[in-house]
Amino acid sequence: MVEETAQDGTLDGKPTFLQNGRKFQDIKDKLVGAPGTPEREQYDLELNRKLISLKIREFRKQHNLTQSELGERIGVQKNQISKLERSPVNVTLDTLIKVFNAMHVKLNLSFEQEAPPISKVKKALLFVCLFAFTYSGISPAPQVGAFF
Predict the structure, then answer these.
(1) Structural domains in the chain, sorted by start
(2) What is the pLDDT of residue 143?
(3) What would the pLDDT profile of 88-110 be if each residue is shown by its tens digit?
(4) DSSP letter (8 states) at residue 87
(5) What's the average model confidence in pLDDT over 30-45?
(6) 76 phi and psi, to 5 degrees?
(7) Neighbour tally for 107: CB within 10 Å
(8) Are the C-beta atoms of 126 and 88 separated by less than 8 Å?
(9) What is the rounded CA–CA span in Å between residue 54 and residue 57?
(10) Distance of CA 94 to the CA centre of its chain
(11) What is the CA radius of gyration of the chain?
C-alpha cells in the first residue's frame, strides 16, 4: 500500500513529525526562541545543567555508589549530591571536578567561539563583489604570469 500525504499535512490521517518540510531546528526556534534571544540562552543554560546532572547520576550508578558514598568521597552531605543530580544551579567548577574525580571520570571542558555576525553592509558588499566578478569576467586574483 502506498501512503500518500493528505492536504492537511498528515500521512494516512496521522500527523507527520515534520509537517510542511520544517526541520527540528525550525520548530525549536519557534517554540524556544531563535539563537541569541534571551529565551534561547535560558533554554540552552537549563539544558546544559540537566545534561551535567544526568551524567553525574549515570556515572555514580555505573560505579555502584550511593549518594551518601559519593558525598563521603568529596566531603559533602548526601543532600548536596541529590541537588547536583536534580539540577546543578550554583555548583562551582571545583565541586564538579571533585565529583567526577571521585568516580575516576575524566572531565573535559571545551570552548567554542561563535563567529561574529556579519553586518548587513558587509554582506551586501560581499554580494556585489561576487556578482561583479562572476558576471564581468574579471578574476578576483591575477593569473599566474599575467604581469610578465
Answers:
(1) 17-102 (1.10.260.40)
(2) 55
(3) 778 888 988 999 999 999 888 78
(4) -
(5) 87
(6) -130, 170
(7) 12
(8) no
(9) 5
(10) 24
(11) 26
Phi and psi at 134, nearest 5°, equal -70, -45
Give ∠ CA 108-114-117 in degrees, rounded to 5.
175
Q: What is the mean pLDDT of the chain?
A: 77
DSSP label at residue 112: -
Task: Tell me how far apart the alpha carbons of residues 84 and 56 are, in angstroms, rounded to a whole number.
Answer: 8
Q: How far apart are the first and last CA of the chain?
A: 70
Single-letter amino acid, residue 100 = F
Q: What integer pLDDT is reported at residue 14 of this predicted model?
A: 53
Taking only the tens place, the pLDDT of each residue in 129-143 is: 776 766 666 555 555
- In whole angstroms, what is the distance from residue 92 CA to residue 96 CA? 7
Helix axes 78-86, 93-102, angle to 10 degrees: 110
Nine-digit cell at 82? Answer: 541529590
Between CA 132 and CA 94 the distance in angstroms is 56
